[in-house]
Design goal:
Layout (H helix, E strand, L loop, with lengths): L25 E9 L3 H8 L14 E4 L7 E5 L7 E3 L2 E6 L3 E8 L4 E13 L2 E11 L3 H33 L9
Antiparallel strand pairs: 1-8, 2-3, 3-4, 5-6, 6-7, 7-8
């Protein structure tokens, strides 16, 4: 039998407290299947400096895929003004994932941005593109911007698939089937 400490000053326990960052993490994600080899996806995703050639979500980008490396990104969420972001590379695994941490609203909203590739066959993958938000203003930020984030992730995924299909076809691979 568990022994509970007595309430102090008339206050009752209300269960576990939220983390220092505030409420529970909130996630926005877009997933899409693609019929190209994962190596082609990774070639595009790992070349941050080349994103501006195909990526509508980050029309300007600079940096390298290295843990702790700073990135310089111009984020263009649909229907919103562009934002200059200076995230830091958090983690990466070749052919699998890229994660970076970012903050906005003077640090009141923190996030982990992720792009993950699940390999289902030699020429088939699922791309997960999203962001996990924490912080005291995360819920408020997402209430105002969830659709813009989702539309941005969708646009990036579709542009990635188009460019990867073009590269594969240029190299003699079979073009992906139209949905």
């Amino acid at each position: 039998m568990a022994i509970r400490p007595p309430p102090m000053f008339g206050m009752k326990s209300r269960g576990p407290r939220p983390s220092a960052g505030g409420a529970a993490p909130l996630k926005v994600e877009h997933r899409i299947g693609v019929q190209v080899p994962p190596e082609i996806l990774w070639e595009l995703l790992s070349d941050v400096d080349g994103w501006s050639a195909w990526n509508p979500l980050y029309p300007k980008s600079r940096g390298e895929i290295r843990i702790g490396a700073p990135l310089e990104l111009t984020e263009a969420l649909p229907g919103r003004t562009t934002r200059e972001a200076r995230p830091v590379m958090l983690d990466w695994v070749p052919l699998e994932q890229i994660h970076w941490r970012d903050s906005r609203s003077d640090g009141w909203v923190k996030s982990v941005r992720f792009i993950e590739v699940d390999i289902v066959s030699a020429t088939g993958c699922i791309v997960s593109n999203g962001e996990v938000f924490t912080g005291l203003l995360a819920k408020r930020h997402l209430k105002a911007n969830r659709t813009a984030h989702l539309d941005g992730f969708r646009a990036m995924n579709e542009a990635l698939i188009d460019r990867a299909g073009q590269l594969w076809a240029e190299r003699g691979g079979a073009p992906p089937e139209a949905p």
